[in-house]
Amino acid sequence: MASHRVYSVGVVQMRTTMDSRENFRHAVSWIEQAAGKGAQVICLPELFKSQYFCQSEDPKMFDLAEPIPGPTTEAIGDLVKKLNVVVITPVFERRAAGLYHNSAAVIDADGTIVGTYRKMHIPDDPSYYEKFYFTPGDLGFHAFDTRFARVSTLICWDQWYPEGARISSLLGASILFYPTAIGWHPREKAQFGKAQRDAWQTVQRGHAIANGIYVAVANRTGLEKLSSNSDGIEFWGSSFICDPQGVVLAEASVHKEEILISEVDLDHLEDIRRNWPFLRDRRIDAYQGITARFLDTPKK
């Protein structure tokens, strides 16, 4: 891994259609534009090659899955070699017949896959029926060395859990990427929408602060309806990049496709950690209960 004290990251916020080939061409265009703006490490949204199919349970959707390595990672690998960039590449991974993951391949600037992350936390909510499609990840949390930096990636629902962010930081990552597909149920937006989106950003900014790490979030945007009798999901965009103090360095709109570009400055990260030494003051001798599902109070 090259030692870059400052490197540039790019976050792609995009819409998707029912045509996976068109979505891929669209993503390639965004990667090229981000590279043209100076981005060295670029992140695409979760499951970017398709519309968000987890709105329903349909076995035909498994036809969208592919292996890692496979067509998407090979094509992105050829692209990054031309552009000299790293791309966090989400993939609906077919591991074997009947065994699928929601994954992200970290493809280095020489076109090699330096690591794969499989989404660990799998939701099961109305219109987010991911447990039907995805096996929980079994590779654990990792930091991956690339040409420009050591990076980590988690995926969407992982955003709400502090443990993955903490481990990524302890593994030496300077930035944590969250490829994402999250939005509003249209019927709930007026009542709950602002609070939902604020909570989503707040918890991730909290991960940045608590761990002294940069955080970059790539969400999709647009209304996606898989059928005419469905309300669909209005993806709320709002992709952002924040620094180790939780300061938002770049933020996208709700409705537009956009590229966010910002710098990761390791000297700034060092300075924040020196002044807020949360890793130093952790009581690792007292956290035994963290791996329990719940700490029941003993009955007297």
How would you explain this protein's 3D organization?
The structure is a single chain. The chain is α+β, with helices and mostly antiparallel strands. The protein has a single domain (6-291), classed as Nitrilase/N-carbamoyl-D-aminoacid amidohydrolase, CATH 3.60.110.10. The protein is 24% helix and 27% strand. The protein contains 5 helices and 17 strands. The protein has helices at 20-36, 71-83, 162-170, 189-211, 266-275, and strands spanning 6-13, 41-43, 86-96, 99-107, 113-118, 124-125, 128-129, 144-145, 150-153, 175-179, 183-184, 214-218, 221-224, 233-236, 240-242, 248-251, 258-265. The strands form 4 sheets. Strands 5-4-3-2-1-17 form a 6-stranded mixed beta sheet. Strand 8 and strand 9 form a beta hairpin. Helix 1 packs parallel to helix 2 and helix 3 runs parallel beside helix 4 (189-211). The longest helix is centred in the middle third of the chain and has 23 residues, at 189-211. The chain is globular and about 55 Å long. The protein starts with 5 loop residues before the first strand and ends in a 25-residue tail after the last helix.
